[in-house]
Amino acid sequence: MDKTGVHVQLLSTVPVMFNYWAKPEDSLDLSRYLNDHLASVVKRHPKRFVGAATVPLQSPELAAQELKRCVNTLGFSSVMIGSHINDWNLDEKKLDPFYKVKNPS
């Protein structure tokens, strides 16, 4: 990072690991694991890295729950989502419970 002049880097889960195709509860478990790992890296190097959460968006309610945990417990200020969730585009009304999380606190 120093060699290329990068001062801070955003860390996130690679999109293939979002696993929107999987059972929501399984994706929630994986999201928690991945988010906890990212948070541990950021904690070790807080001046170099920031983290972006991943959430099980195939279940908007579980996604909202994990977003709140990531903000309130892990200190994340961003979330990375895919361009679509299975057959849903991002304007799908079923995603509203996730989008309506205004202040995760």
Automatic annotation (TrEMBL):
Transmembrane segments: none annotated. GO terms for cellular component: cytosol. The keyword Lyase applies. InterPro entries: ACMSD, Amidohydro-rel, Metal_Hydrolase. Residues 31-100 form the Amidohydrolase-related domain. It comes from the Eukaryota. It catalyses: 2-amino-3-carboxymuconate 6-semialdehyde + H(+) = 2-aminomuconate 6-semialdehyde + CO2. GO terms for molecular function: aminocarboxymuconate-semialdehyde decarboxylase activity; hydrolase activity; metal ion binding. Pfam families: Amidohydro_2. GO terms for biological process: negative regulation of quinolinate biosynthetic process; secondary metabolic process. SUPFAM superfamilies: Metallo-dependent hydrolases. Its EC number is 4.1.1.45. Pathway: Secondary metabolite metabolism; quinolate metabolism. Belongs to the metallo-dependent hydrolases superfamily. ACMSD family. Monomer. Converts alpha-amino-beta-carboxymuconate-epsilon-semialdehyde (ACMS) to alpha-aminomuconate semialdehyde (AMS). This is 2-amino-3-carboxymuconate-6-semialdehyde decarboxylase. It comes from Caerostris extrusa (Bark spider). The gene is ACMSD.
